[in-house]
Model the fold of this input.
Amino acid sequence: MKAPKNPENEVERLQTLRALNILNTPKEERFDRLTRMAKRLFDVPIVAISLVDKNRQWFKSCIGLDVRETSRNVSFCGHAILDNKILVVENAKEDERFADNPLVVNAPNVAFYAGCPIRALDGQLLGTLCLIDSKPRTMSTEDLEMLSDLAAIVEAEIAVENRSLPF
Done:
């Protein structure tokens, strides 16, 4: 297993994330609605809006898992925020970064992961809208576009809540 590295702009990224005051907040229907839509659109058992904090990934919304956070060092989302594009892992059991990851070899037995980065208005990557399945999968170009579109709605919802902030 390869733990995710920190982005080069980690200090600024965390400052933005904390300034949004979204971590550790209650569930909200506007985010849960989007995860339900993604679950139905992509026919996956797990969908999450994950925010990558210093040592954890915290789920603003999550369907299919009964946890609100996991350790960042085992997170797929921690890898996804290293780039400004969708991270697709078609078969985690065959990917050297994840093959022996506890989330792969134990419940929830992640085999497939697709995470689209969620950005703040200042461009900082906050986390992802991610799709997870226990069986390998591929994504079409249209699937990637739909995931990106849903992630853009998540970004807009976060921005609406925080439009008075200076970024």
